[in-house]
Fold this protein.
Amino acid sequence: MKITMVKKILADGSPCKKCGEVLERLEQSGHIKRIDRIVEAYENDPLSEGMQIATMLNVDKAPFFVVEKPGEAPIAYTIYFKLVKEVLDKATAEETN
């Protein structure tokens, strides 16, 4: 499984406030180690990797997470707590069994 976080950079170059808050939660919880990549979506650059991923998955919120499992279509999570419940906590529980 591969997890990518896409965070937004605003047109003025500043980071998205919510993205920073979610990143801080990931670090405090220890879940940051489960994030394989962090990609930036530049608000004023539709060709930036993060914006292209958002367009491909039809996501218009940031931050969001893309979960890729072999043989399955990528799933986008726009709600951090849903990602934790359905992916991060579940994967941790499976590893300890």
Helices lie at 17-29, 49-57, 80-96. The domain at 2-96 is CATH 3.40.30.10 (Glutaredoxin). The first strand starts at residue 2 and ends at 9.
